[in-house]
Amino acid sequence: MDKLNIEPKKALRYVAPFLFAAVAIPTVLVNLTPTPVSKLLRRRFSRPKTDLLPENYAEIKAKTKIVRDLDYHSTLANGFLDVIMPKEQSGKLPLVIWMHGGAYVGGDKRDVTNYAESIASYGYIVGNINYALAPEQPYPGPLIQLTESYLYLKEHAEEFQIDMNQVFFAGDSAGAQIVSQFLTIQTNQKLADAVDIQPVVPLETLKGALMFCGPFDIKKLGTESKSVMMNLLMNQVAWAYVGEKKWLTDERLHQVSLRNYMTDNYPPSLIADGNTLSFEEHGRDFVALLKEHDVEVEGIFFPEEVKTEHEYQFIMNSEAGKYTFERVMNFLENHRDK
Q1: Under CATH, which number does the domain 12-335 receive?
Q2: Three-state secondary structure along the chain?
Q3: pLDDT tens digits for 182-224?
Q4: Residue 297 phi, psi (nearest 5)
């Protein structure tokens, strides 16, 4: 990694929404409700991101197809997903189910489409999931909808030629944290009972997980940054997701602390993060936790001189983005059935 030559990206690409919100929202409002900050962040996340495509995107686009906005019959709002797959398909293919990021209050599956197309072009089917956002839908809504979307894809496996014996889960930012807890539910009945969401994925079919830039330790949000402004905004995000102003004392935080429920049944995992305005410490701690439980895990982190920002993996024309995607595809290939 010390040989990578990467031009520094503008670190505000993803954190600008937070900084903007802190200036735009009066203090009196943020003390009453997380809704104004959440809605402003949602609008900022909805702005299109440019110049992120891989250099061979035209080739990737030509090799893949998308079935968009399938209703996965959720009990909650925004229950739609896209199925992204190779145009030429011979036999059933492994499934990757992806939860997008957006600080729990924003984001959309379209943010992941290009990355999902790139994965699909190598012979995978990607279920790209939307879900109801906070604060309108607090915790554990996304966990319920990840369960529902899996069951929908299982029901339609023949239609899309999905090999349900080979399932991977993936997520970025808030989506990574959601996936990390969902997988703990699948592998520890005690957590499933605590959250009241039962496991649905047979362990022998759970091949692995990809998690990027995740805030895996929610208790740190609103307290860990040296920036008062960033702590304020992260506090608003956590309040929106947990659904309680005094979220740090909410007993449900015990459920999202993976250390309380980790077992050696957790699937092989690849965890990556940037080193600039992201959650690198969370990722490194999560890697260490998995190793403590003898779970197979790969970590992708960068030396200080290689500046990589939050969600850097989606900058697919950068050296860091290309390196990480190569590692992602190697991970998938090494853990799918031969």
Answers
A1: 3.40.50.1820
A2: CCCCCCCCCCCHHHHHHHHHHHHHCCHHHHCCCCHHHHHHHHHHHCCCCCCCCCCCHHHHHHHEEEEEEEECCCCCCCCEEEEEEECCCCCCEEEEEEECCCCCCCCCHHHHHHHHHHHHCCCCEEEEECCCCCCCCCCCHHHHHHHHHHHHHHHCHHHHCEEEEEEEEEEECHHHHHHHHHHHHHHCHHHHHHHCCCCCCCHHHEEEEEEECCCCCHHHCCCCCCCHHHHHHHHHHHHHHHCCCCHHHCCCHHHHCHHHCCCCCCCCEEEECCCECCCHHHHHHHHHHHHHCCCCEEEECCCCCCCCECCHHHCCCCHHHHHHHHHHHHHHHHHCCC
A3: 999 999 999 999 999 999 999 999 999 999 999 999 988 877 7
A4: -150, 145
Encoded tokens for 117: 């197309």
Q: 54 and 29 in contact (C-beta within 8 Å)?
A: no
Split at pLDDT 50, 70, 90, the class of 8 is very low
Among the listed residues 63, 99, 93, the one whose alpha carbon sits nearest the alpha carbon of residue 81: 99
Query: What average pLDDT does this structure show over 167-174?
Result: 98
Within 8 A by CB and 6+ apart from 204, the residues are 165
Q: Which residue ranges make up each domain of the chain?
A: 12-335
Going by pLDDT thresholds of 50, 70 and 90, the confidence category of residue 10 is very low
CB atoms within 10 A of CB 290: 23
Burial 186-203 (b: 16+ CB within 10 A, else e): bbbeebbebbebebebee
Partnered with residue 66 across adjacent β-strands are 84
